[in-house]
Design brief:
With 291 residues, this protein is of the alpha+beta class. The protein has seven helices and 15 strands. It starts with a strand and ends in a 19-residue tail after the last strand.
Length: 291
Amino acid sequence: MPFALLKDRALISVSGPDAEHFLQNILTTDLDTLDPGVAKPGALLSPQGKILFDFLVSRAGDDGFRLECRADIADDFVRRLMLYRLRAKADITKQDQPLVTIMWGDDSTASHFDSIWADSTSLVDARFRDVAVRRFYGGSAEDGDLDAWLGLRIANGIAESGSDYALGDAFPHDVLLDETGGVGFKKGCYVGQEVVSRMQHRGTARRRVLIASADSPLPAPGTELTVAGRPVGALGSVSGRTGLAIARIDRVKAASDVGNKIMATDVPVTLAIPAWAKFSFPQDTVSAEEA
């Protein structure tokens, strides 16, 4: 079974009698629907609805939570959580140098995951729909296959900050948090909730994660995608001839309707919606001239 050790991750612990209420009031994830043994995506937003921090959240004991995030943003994330804590009875601490291992396979192999890392915490990565993915905190320190993990993320349309978008530059809908369980639309208010809810109810989300493919190797992450010289998006993670992109789906659809090529420098690119996603290309698009 393929696996990979992620050396660029950090774990933040939030525990205490007010931990759940405190987090529920500031994060996008609905903690009321978070089951034990599951890691769900989420974000802490700016008041304008942009993602300041992205993470995976899971339960830890009776009154605690783990927030797994990029190691390079962990200290800033802790400081921001401290800022919002006020009088809440919640302890916030960062765990130094945690071992975070990913293992994946089909449903027939999922039952064997726990026995391999029996001494670690095992969590289902809820972002993935078509393949069983587990995250292990603790256990083996073997490197595994990071290239295979990158390929799995790309094939399933799972974007992460740093690799695929810059923090402060994307709304939750842009990176599909609305479809991977990272946004609770039935929960109460949280930071940035008004903007996110308005995008959801008005159906105004136009930037989306798409899977990019080409007949030759794709250029580097961050390369602009253009149609007739006009920008429609940018590449994120890249592995050979496939990658992730965040692009304007209305402009992609308009280009397709009139047969215009989407280009990444000099490489023609095809953009597709992840198979599991519920959104679709809009019927009413920008004009062919705009595309």
